[in-house]
Amino acid sequence: MITLNDHHSEVLHQYNVSLNRIVYEATKNDNAKSFLEMRKLLDTVIRYSDDFYKGVNEDSGISEWMFMYPNMTYYAIEGFLIAKRGMYEEGYIETLETELLNEATEVIGELSDILREFNEEMDEQLCGLNKKEE
């Protein structure tokens, strides 16, 4: 998975651990195929995000790319969980949905901070280049 820096990588790694746990909990009474199919979908989202990044112009698409993965995975897993309602006792899937929402909200906040820091670093580098030209 392409990331801006080590902090970005760590945040997404922890998010993926949480996503895997939520998907596992939603499929623990199913056969392993259900979990593996959802993992395959999440891997496809990673490839899509990486491919998107490769075509991004740093000035216009970095912020869209930064939030693409958590947004796409949130909606994919939310849809998956909605389909699982009725297969477990009442409230179980809803609890997983709440956990998913909390995880996505937290990671988006962390990514916002990472993006802000990245943009500040880029601005500082550009200012340094402009001063050298003077």
What does this structure look like?
The protein is about 80% helix and about 0% strand. The chain has about 130 residues and is mainly alpha-helical. The termini are far apart.
In total, the number of strands is: 0
String of helices and strands? HHHH
Q: How many helices in DSSP terms? A: 4
- Provide the structure class: mainly alpha
Q: Report the end-to-end length measured between terminal Cα atoms.
A: 39 Å
> Rounded to an integer, what's the Rg over CA atoms?
18 Å
What spatial form do the alpha-carbon principal axes imply? elongated
Determine the mean pLDDT: 91
The major beta sheet can be summarized as:
none
What secondary-structure arrangement, pairings included, does this model have?
Elements (H helix, E strand, L loop, with lengths): L5 H22 L4 H23 L7 H23 L7 H42 L1
Which short descriptors sum up this protein?
134 residues; mainly alpha; 0% strand
Summarize the structure.
This protein is mainly alpha-helical. The chain contains 4 helices and no strands. α1 runs antiparallel to α2, α2 runs antiparallel to α3 and α3 packs antiparallel against α4.
